[in-house]
Backbone:
């Protein structure tokens, strides 16, 4: 029996871990240990996602919590190393690009535990993004790199990663959506907020580059208020953004705008219900660029670059700055229905399980 640690840490991880957890636990050759690092800990940033995805209580909870990058990364490393020394997994699967992804990869590389990275190869080429550092280092350490799109393979090969380690498996987040599609469609969130399908926008904002800089945040909020003069906007507030709005005394301005509805962060099912009915999504998230590409919903991304260029070339995503936001919403083009990128088909977890099983075979029979 092969022990596989599956690392869950922060909100954007849970939808990547869930389909894989459910697929791996069907297999007789492996035992899955679900490890939560505790990077996100609020009920609506963590527990509610476990509930939506029918994930059990984690087998191990490292309880690390927030802190500076060094504190958080080091905290996860110390706690996860202890866990591995007490009970060593054969494989560790890390997902995405958060600090815990990097921390657990480093621990495993030093302990000689094999690491597989799901969602490998994405690059924004912007090293001011903490996630870009996490992606580069994690990919340089991983024994197996599962990519969501072919640009991921190209990036890894250009960085000198041996071809045999790289496998194009597709986008696991589409598995999550398809897994819960019926519940998302049946969910009542649009109704409860009194929204007309196609008659509102949704904004999510949390990147340090947008919210930690007071001037930038003020410009974004100014642009958002103009958009909201004509289109009702739902704004689920990430904890980081809530704090920054208050520090910059912008919270009152947002609250006073009749067109903007501030709400607490939503878990997956209610959030995707909002996305499904939206006229436009305004975001700086990575995952939402992909979900809107799959669903053919216009997405305006408030960033200068993206590690997911396929969402621009094959999807409905546009990168823009706050100065262009109002125009961007006014001149929205409803994307033509088109085929999603290859392997964005809800079957990525199966391909990952197959790939891992093959690697395990190779290891057991050298
Ligand atoms: C992290 C990830 C980012 C991801 C985002 C999604 C890194 C470097 N960043 O950023 O890639 O897109 O999660 O949310 O790993 N907080 C709470 N409750 C929580 C979690 C956080 O109140 O459950 C507050 C804390 O004050 C914390 C702040 O939010 O200091 C930021 O949290 P943190 O995990 O450091 O980074 P995120 O901005 O969430």
Residues:
């Amino acid at each position: 029996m092969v022990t596989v640690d599956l690392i869950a840490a922060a909100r954007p991880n849970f939808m990547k871990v869930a389909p894989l957890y459910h697929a791996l636990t069907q297999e007789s050759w492996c035992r899955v240990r679900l490890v939560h690092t505790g990077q996100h800990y609020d009920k609506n940033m963590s527990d509610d996602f476990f509930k939506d995805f029918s994930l059990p209580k984690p087998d191990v909870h490292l309880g690390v919590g927030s802190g500076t990058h060094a504190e958080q990364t080091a905290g996860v490393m110390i706690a996860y190393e202890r866990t591995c020394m007490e009970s060593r997994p054969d494989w560790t699967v890390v997902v995405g690009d958060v600090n815990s992804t990097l921390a657990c990869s480093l621990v495993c590389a030093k302990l000689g535990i094999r690491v597989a990275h799901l969602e490998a190869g994405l690059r924004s080429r912007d090293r001011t993004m903490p996630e870009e550092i996490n992606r580069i280092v994690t990919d340089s350490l991983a024994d197996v790199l599962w990519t969501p799109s072919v640009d991921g393979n190209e990036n890894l090969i250009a960085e000198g990663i041996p071809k045999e380690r790289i496998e194009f498996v597709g986008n696991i987040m589409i598995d999550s959506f398809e897994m819960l599609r019926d519940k998302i469609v049946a969910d009542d969130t649009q109704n409860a907020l009194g929204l007309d399908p196609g008659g509102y926008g949704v904004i999510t904002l949390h990147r340090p580059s947008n919210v930690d800089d007071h001037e930038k945040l003020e410009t974004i909020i100014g642009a958002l208020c103009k958009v909201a003069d004509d289109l009702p906007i739902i704004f689920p507030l990430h904890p980081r953004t809530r704090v920054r709005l208050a520090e910059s005394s912008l919270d009152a301005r947002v609250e006073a705008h009749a067109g903007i509805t501030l709400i607490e962060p939503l878990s997956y099912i209610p959030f995707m219900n909002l996305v499904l009915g939206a006229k436009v999504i305004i975001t700086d998230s990575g995952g939402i660029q992909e979900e809107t590409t799959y669903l053919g919903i216009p997405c305006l991304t408030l960033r200068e670059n993206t590690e997911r260029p396929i969402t621009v070339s094959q999807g409905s995503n546009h990168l823009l700055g706050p100065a262009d936001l109002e125009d961007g919403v006014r001149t929205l083009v409803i994307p033509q229905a088109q085929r999603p990128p290859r392997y964005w088909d809800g079957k990525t977890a199966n391909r990952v399980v197959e790939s891992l099983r093959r690697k395990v075979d190779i290891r057991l029979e050298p």
Q: What stands out?
A: Residues 10 and 40 are 5 Å apart (CA to CA). The pocket of uridine-diphosphate-N-acetylglucosamine is lined by residues 10-12, 39-42, 45, 66, 97-99, 130-131, 206, 238-240 (CB under 6 Å).
